[in-house]
Model the fold of this input.
Amino acid sequence: MSKYQLPIVASDQMPLVELDVMNRVHREEVEIINQLGTLLINGLQSKPDIESISHTVMAWIDHTREHFEGENSMMMEHGFPPYPVHKGEHDQVLLRLEALQAQWLRDFNLETLADYLFIEWRNWFDNHVRSMDMVTAQFLGRFIR
Done:
Protein backbone atom coordinates (compact mmCIF):
# COMPACT_ATOMS: atom_id res chain seq x y z
CA MET A 1 0.00 0.00 0.00
CA SER A 2 1.35 3.41 -0.98
CA LYS A 3 1.82 6.15 1.58
CA TYR A 4 -0.07 8.40 -0.85
CA GLN A 5 -3.83 7.80 -0.81
CA LEU A 6 -6.50 9.59 -2.83
CA PRO A 7 -8.49 11.56 -2.21
CA ILE A 8 -6.20 13.60 -0.02
CA VAL A 9 -9.32 15.16 1.47
CA ALA A 10 -12.69 13.67 0.55
CA SER A 11 -15.12 16.53 -0.06
CA ASP A 12 -17.80 14.77 2.01
CA GLN A 13 -15.35 14.37 4.92
CA MET A 14 -14.00 17.92 4.85
CA PRO A 15 -14.42 19.68 8.20
CA LEU A 16 -17.13 22.34 7.91
CA VAL A 17 -17.34 25.71 9.62
CA GLU A 18 -20.26 28.01 10.35
CA LEU A 19 -19.80 30.23 7.24
CA ASP A 20 -20.77 28.92 3.81
CA VAL A 21 -18.33 31.29 2.11
CA MET A 22 -15.41 29.71 3.98
CA ASN A 23 -16.67 26.18 3.26
CA ARG A 24 -16.97 27.01 -0.44
CA VAL A 25 -13.38 28.30 -0.60
CA HIS A 26 -12.12 25.24 1.30
CA ARG A 27 -14.00 22.95 -1.11
CA GLU A 28 -12.35 24.70 -4.09
CA GLU A 29 -8.94 24.24 -2.50
CA VAL A 30 -9.62 20.56 -1.81
CA GLU A 31 -10.53 20.07 -5.49
CA ILE A 32 -7.19 21.58 -6.56
CA ILE A 33 -5.32 19.51 -3.96
CA ASN A 34 -6.93 16.28 -5.11
CA GLN A 35 -6.16 17.11 -8.77
CA LEU A 36 -2.53 17.72 -7.85
CA GLY A 37 -2.44 14.51 -5.82
CA THR A 38 -3.71 12.54 -8.82
CA LEU A 39 -1.05 14.11 -11.07
CA LEU A 40 1.67 13.25 -8.54
CA ILE A 41 0.58 9.63 -8.08
CA ASN A 42 0.33 9.18 -11.84
CA GLY A 43 3.77 10.76 -12.22
CA LEU A 44 5.29 8.45 -9.62
CA GLN A 45 3.84 5.43 -11.42
CA SER A 46 4.86 6.45 -14.93
CA LYS A 47 6.23 9.49 -16.78
CA PRO A 48 5.31 12.67 -14.86
CA ASP A 49 3.45 15.48 -16.62
CA ILE A 50 5.76 18.25 -15.37
CA GLU A 51 3.81 21.00 -17.16
CA SER A 52 0.45 19.99 -15.66
CA ILE A 53 1.95 19.57 -12.20
CA SER A 54 3.65 22.99 -12.41
CA HIS A 55 0.42 24.62 -13.62
CA THR A 56 -1.60 23.00 -10.82
CA VAL A 57 0.95 24.02 -8.17
CA MET A 58 0.67 27.61 -9.41
CA ALA A 59 -3.16 27.44 -9.37
CA TRP A 60 -3.01 26.06 -5.82
CA ILE A 61 -0.76 28.87 -4.61
CA ASP A 62 -2.87 31.53 -6.35
CA HIS A 63 -6.04 30.08 -4.81
CA THR A 64 -4.42 29.83 -1.38
CA ARG A 65 -3.26 33.44 -1.57
CA GLU A 66 -6.82 34.61 -2.45
CA HIS A 67 -8.29 32.29 0.21
CA PHE A 68 -6.06 33.73 2.93
CA GLU A 69 -6.53 37.34 1.77
CA GLY A 70 -10.31 36.84 1.91
CA GLU A 71 -10.24 35.45 5.43
CA ASN A 72 -7.72 38.07 6.59
CA SER A 73 -9.92 40.83 5.19
CA MET A 74 -13.05 39.53 6.93
CA MET A 75 -11.18 39.17 10.23
CA MET A 76 -9.81 42.72 10.01
CA GLU A 77 -13.11 44.26 8.92
CA HIS A 78 -14.98 42.76 11.86
CA GLY A 79 -12.28 43.15 14.51
CA PHE A 80 -11.57 39.48 15.17
CA PRO A 81 -9.40 39.66 18.33
CA PRO A 82 -6.91 36.83 17.48
CA TYR A 83 -6.49 38.13 13.91
CA PRO A 84 -2.67 38.46 14.23
CA VAL A 85 -2.31 34.79 15.22
CA HIS A 86 -4.57 33.50 12.44
CA LYS A 87 -2.98 35.77 9.84
CA GLY A 88 0.46 34.73 11.08
CA GLU A 89 -0.33 31.09 10.36
CA HIS A 90 -1.60 32.04 6.89
CA ASP A 91 1.65 33.92 6.25
CA GLN A 92 3.77 30.95 7.36
CA VAL A 93 1.86 28.49 5.15
CA LEU A 94 2.05 30.79 2.13
CA LEU A 95 5.81 31.20 2.58
CA ARG A 96 6.16 27.42 2.82
CA LEU A 97 4.10 26.93 -0.35
CA GLU A 98 6.15 29.51 -2.26
CA ALA A 99 9.39 27.83 -1.12
CA LEU A 100 7.99 24.46 -2.12
CA GLN A 101 7.08 25.81 -5.56
CA ALA A 102 10.59 27.24 -6.02
CA GLN A 103 12.08 23.90 -5.01
CA TRP A 104 9.75 22.08 -7.42
CA LEU A 105 10.73 24.36 -10.29
CA ARG A 106 14.42 23.76 -9.46
CA ASP A 107 14.48 19.97 -9.22
CA PHE A 108 11.00 18.62 -10.18
CA ASN A 109 11.15 16.17 -7.27
CA LEU A 110 7.79 14.40 -7.14
CA GLU A 111 8.42 12.80 -3.73
CA THR A 112 9.18 16.12 -2.01
CA LEU A 113 5.99 17.67 -3.36
CA ALA A 114 3.92 14.55 -2.65
CA ASP A 115 5.23 14.25 0.93
CA TYR A 116 4.24 17.84 1.62
CA LEU A 117 0.84 17.54 -0.01
CA PHE A 118 -0.26 14.13 1.27
CA ILE A 119 1.23 14.39 4.76
CA GLU A 120 2.21 17.86 5.97
CA TRP A 121 -0.44 19.94 4.17
CA ARG A 122 -3.17 17.36 4.85
CA ASN A 123 -2.49 17.41 8.59
CA TRP A 124 -2.19 21.20 8.65
CA PHE A 125 -5.44 21.74 6.71
CA ASP A 126 -7.47 19.48 8.98
CA ASN A 127 -6.05 21.03 12.17
CA HIS A 128 -6.34 24.61 10.87
CA VAL A 129 -9.96 24.26 9.78
CA ARG A 130 -10.98 22.44 12.99
CA SER A 131 -9.33 25.04 15.22
CA MET A 132 -8.59 28.52 13.86
CA ASP A 133 -11.17 28.53 11.06
CA MET A 134 -13.89 27.05 13.29
CA VAL A 135 -13.44 29.80 15.90
CA THR A 136 -13.08 32.50 13.23
CA ALA A 137 -16.27 31.41 11.45
CA GLN A 138 -18.21 31.36 14.74
CA PHE A 139 -17.10 34.93 15.43
CA LEU A 140 -17.70 36.19 11.88
CA GLY A 141 -21.10 34.45 11.77
CA ARG A 142 -22.42 37.27 13.93
CA PHE A 143 -21.73 39.70 11.06
CA ILE A 144 -21.79 37.66 7.85
CA ARG A 145 -24.32 35.21 6.48
